[in-house]
Amino acid sequence: MRFIFLVLLTLTIKATVAQTPVIDSLKQIVALQKHDTVEFETLLNLTYEFMRRDLTRARQYSFEIIKHANATAHAKWLSGAYNYLITIYQQTGMADSALYAIELSGKLVKQNPDNKKILYNYNQATGLFYKNRGEYKKALPYMADNLRLWTKPDENRAGLLLNLGNLYFNMGEFKKSTDYHLQALKLFEELKNLRGQSFCLQSLGNDFYNLNQFVTAKKYYERSLQLKEKLGDKRGTLNSTISLGDVHKDLNDYQKSEAYFQKALAEARSMNFPAEEARILHQSGLLYKRMQEIEKARGSFTQSMALSKKLNDSVTFVKTQSELLNLDLIEQDKKKTEALMLNGLNTLIRTGDRQQEAIEYHRLSEYYALNKDYEKALYYLKKHESLTDSIEGGAVLLQLKELEEKYNNEKNEQEIALLKKDQELQTLELQKQRANTTILITVFISVIVVSILLINRYRVMNRIKRQAELENMRQSIARDLHDDIGSTLSSINIMSKLAMQQNDNSGQLEKISTYSSRMMETMSDMVWSINPLNDSVEQVLAKMKEFASEILEPKNMQFEFTCDRTVSTIRLDAEKRKSLFLIFKEAINNIAKYSEATQVFVYLNCTSETLHMKVQDNGKGFDTAAITSGNGLKNMAARARAIKGTWNQLTEPGKGTIITVEIPIT
To answer: How far apart are CA 39 and CA 321, in angstroms?
Structure first.
């Protein structure tokens, strides 16, 4: 009967997987030496962090709480320290100290009858203690009471379900154990708790093992081991390693079974877990017994009995003692049979019955071969062959050859198995390398193809964008030529004809001069706007200052430009550049013609991919309700909308006018 190794869940603290940064931060709190509830809570956390990695340090942190805590004011933390010590003492083989810790924790329960948390922690620690000692009936009421107390569907309840399942398993009530294990696994999966899942998988492996479903049990153990290694759970890894040794033993894969037991034994000794060490030695003894290696089995059983006796582990001690007695019976039967056969041989030698003597040699050879003592088997077969040859000739030579081959093949089979295993590993590694190479080549080619497609798409999009910009530019130039210059030339043509028909044509000539100047100015603005050298806002600003100077200074109007530093680095396309300047130009012309202002302020700044322009004067302003058309207001708004911008004006009679424009940069 194999052993079921128990799992420890959180007693008082729900903590995450121990990590160095967490431990370091906890130590910093303890170093303050305030001896308050914060420090006691931190010490409990540190105890929990070291429970599965260093029991000596875990015990030291519990002692710190006991040393400074007050039984009345700090009962919660004192109870936690006692409960941790119960587990620590049991795992280090100090059963008497563990019982004393149970007594102290029980006193705190009686002193605090209304504190369900203290009762819960006491039940948990005490129940696990008796469970680990194999006293399952004593453990059951503590664990059942805790399941009644804790109804919240969290990690604590899942742990209670798991431990109850393990307890019923040890009591032989497999239907109940499976039911509780499945409930626990479902809850841990809902909570995404990997540690709890690893424990449930271990216990389900135990269930299937007990039902002799060894292949299924092995799968559960392997899944549990993977999770525990991922979590750095050394104690849990030890339990899964032992279980895999058991299941490989029952699958008759003795080599793997022995390897798992040897690994588990080394880990148990390095972590100072004598209880686990005793159980591993017991399981190793069962393996060697099945392998007919009686002396190795006896050695393992003897060591296990000594440890379990020291630990007061009655279950392990009794089971190991029973196996050792069984070995003695086997040895006695073998020795008795061997003695009878040797006595019979001696009698035949004395009486001189050579034919029967040869038969007895052959029987002794078969006896020793059956018990895997091939050296003696070969010796007596040679004696049989020698005597029979003198009696019957060389007919026995074939049997001798077969026995020799059997003797030698046993050694060769192990070497062949090792060679096959190495060859399989090499083949698997080669397949992995080929697969990795294929994947890398595929990824590399895919990256190249995708890169080429992206570059080509980028070029095509740029080409389309440039063509669209050129088309927009052509349309804009054509529209400006038709609207501004075309209409101006028509006016000049009409006025020229009138001038030729009138004697006093000075007025018409003056208008022709004005229209010609306006047309030249429009042409200049158009050429300036499409010149790529003027695509920066800095160039636009220079053009604005030049125009403002020409228009405002003759009217004795002071003007001031205020710009952000970032504005000078912004670049605008021709359409936006032209529209921005023409809106500014229209605003300045309106100020010069109608505002009667003395000061003009121009602001340029950039925020969130948007260029802002504000033109403000201190003139007489106007009533927007009274102005329905003219003054270029609609023209300014239309130009702003054409470049997906916004235009606004704010004015009142006697309070000046503010024109604002917002243009997207991108």
So the answer is: 48
Could you give the residue ranges of the DSSP H alpha helices within 251-396? 254-270, 274-290, 294-310, 314-351, 354-370, 374-392
How far apart, in whole angstroms, are the C-alpha atoms of residue 24 and residue 15? 15
Segment among 238-242, 394-398, 518-522 with least mean pLDDT = 394-398
Domain 532-664: CATH architecture, name and number where available: 2-Layer Sandwich (3.30)
- Residue span(s) of the chain under CATH 3.30.565.10 come to 532-664
Is 282:320 a contact under the CB 8 Å cutoff? yes
Residues of the chain within CATH 1.25.40 domain(s) are 1-149, 328-407
Euclidean distance between CA atoms 222 and 209, whole angstroms: 13
Q: Comparing 386-400, 501-515, 552-566, which segment has the lowest mean pLDDT?
A: 386-400
Give the CB-side neighbour count of residue 31, counting CA atoms within 13 A. 6
Tokens of 207: 């269930």
The per-residue pLDDT for 192 is: 92
- Please provide the size of the chain in residues: 666
In 3D, which of 398, 378, 402 has the Cα closest to residue 389? 398
Q: pLDDT at position 497, please?
A: 64
For the stretch 621-635, pLDDT in tens is 888 777 765 557 888
Residue 30 · residue 41 · CB < 8 Å: no
pLDDT at residue 648 is higher than 90: yes
Q: Output the CA angle 252-168-126, nearest 5 degrees.
A: 115
Domain 1-149 carries which CATH code?
A: 1.25.40
CATH topology for 328-407 is: 1.25.40
| Element (DSSP H or E) covering residue 226 | helix 214-231
Binning the chain into helix, strand and coil, the percentages to the nearest 5 are 75, 5, 20
205 CB-side CA count, 13 A: 31
Question: Which pairs with CB-CB distance under 8 Å and at least 24 residues apart come from 350-354?
Answer: 354/387, 354/390, 354/391
